[in-house]
Amino acid sequence: MQDNSVFMPATRTAGLQRLRNFQSNMGLAYAKRRNQDRGPGNHSAVSQLSPYIRRRLVTETEVIAAALAAHGPENAEKFVQEVLWRGYFKGWLERRPQVWANYVTGLNRDLDTLKSDAALQSKIIAAEAGETGIDCFDAWAKELTSTGYLHNHARMWFASIWIFTLGLPWRLGSDFFFRHLLDGDPASNTCSWRWVAGLHTRGKPYEARAWNISRFTGGRFSPREEEFASDIIGLMDEEPEGLPEVQPLRSVIAPQPNVPTAVILTEEDCSITTSDLALLDTRAVARLHASHLRSPRAVYAGVIDFETEALADTAARAGLETETLTAIEPINLANWAEAAGARQIAMPYVPVGPLADWMAQAQPILEERGITVTEWRRDWDALIWPHATAGFFKVKKQMPEILSAAGLT
Ligand SMILES: Cc1cc2nc3c(=O)[nH]c(=O)nc-3n(C[C@H](O)[C@H](O)[C@H](O)COP(=O)(O)OP(=O)(O)OC[C@H]3O[C@@H](n4cnc5c(N)ncnc54)[C@H](O)[C@@H]3O)c2cc1C
């Protein structure tokens, strides 16, 4: 049974309420308890704000400001750092778009293999249904498919067991997460799976250990050490030529005033407000539904519902009458914008991921019709992404400057 009710409704008001409820826990209590996975309904040591932050129903700066206000920079440091990890991964993938392109190609190849390999098929079915016989893994698979959420530590253990103990292709695991996570994000998800696999920090995979699982699940699970692969070295056969080179950040055209404009709302950034739209000559507004693009396989209904509600909430907050578009045929976007008389589309910045791939297909059609795609890129991203070229350490070192430039300290 699917029950993601703990995260609904997908509105800014609900996100802010969750933020207020968790604010007193963002300090030393978070630093001490955040690794504990007490199971569905008991994730009180962490904020569970990720589905809201991922869509900017609540922004990174808002949650950091709340943490700093309640606890000060020293005690809130751990929480603030975790939020920065999100910006780091987003920036990292932005600077290495080829990693995403390779993931997509590799996933399609893995899915083709899956069709013809009956043994692999039955292993994947068992893993996704939580029927492997490894208690903790099975419980996490069921929690994910029924709630759309997993604790960070469970994600790490699960991915490690998937790759190294069960020996399953990492991209199929990443895709399983991406199809089900309400906070599913192309950067955080892909980079985290790569990190567990020993691809992000090459040759340093994450090893799931029985004592660690037993300790941080408060004894809910008591696996035996022999159940899990040990002395792992990571997926050293992948990317023998190393990482693709770091690219400059993609240049962005900002929305221009006095140009007939079609505004697109997407779940990439639901923090659009009336002030973003103030100077625009807006002719039409649409909510673009795109979360089905996360995978060639079926995406969890809860993910689709969350996006639908989040976009409706964004439109309502900005007082906008909207139409609905679904990212299926790119030509439909061009037809809609052209029918509205638009010369530019204004939308939140589209980071590397499925929607950017779809927009790349729409781009030549829009160009042919004389319609320019313009984007709002947020200051927060512009502050972090220049530093996301190597390890997280580089971003962490810049933390005081980033927080100060964002007006948070
Ligand atoms: C294999 C794997 C896959 C993951 N896939 C995703 C994903 O698709 N989307 C996603 O948002 N996060 C992903 N994460 C990161 C992390 O697990 C989640 O952000 C976190 O568990 C969300 O729960 P929370 O809101 O209670 O976090 P909290 O601990 O309360 O943290 C507050 C916020 O900080 C950010 N954050 C915290 N930890 C991380 C982290 N390690 N990396 C990036 N951001 C972080 C999130 O926005 C989170 O909401 C993944 C981690 C792993 C190991």
TrEMBL record:
Show where the Cryptochrome/DNA photolyase FAD-binding domain sits: 79-212
Could you confirm whether the keyword Transmembrane helix appears in this record? no
Q: Does the keyword Transport apply?
A: no
Q: Per the annotation, how and in what number is the cofactor bound? A: Binds 1 FAD per subunit.
Q: Which GO terms describe its molecular function?
A: deoxyribodipyrimidine photo-lyase activity; DNA binding; FAD binding
**Keywords from the UniProt entry:** FAD, Flavoprotein, Lyase
Name used for this protein in its record = Deoxyribodipyrimidine photolyase
Organism of origin is Marivivens niveibacter
Q: Where does FAD bind?
A: Y30, F79, E82, V83, L84, W85, R86, G87, Y88, F89, D183, G184, D185
User: Which superkingdom does the taxonomy of this entry point to?
Assistant: Bacteria
Cofactor(s) needed for function = FAD
Task: Supply the Pfam families for this chain.
Answer: FAD_binding_7
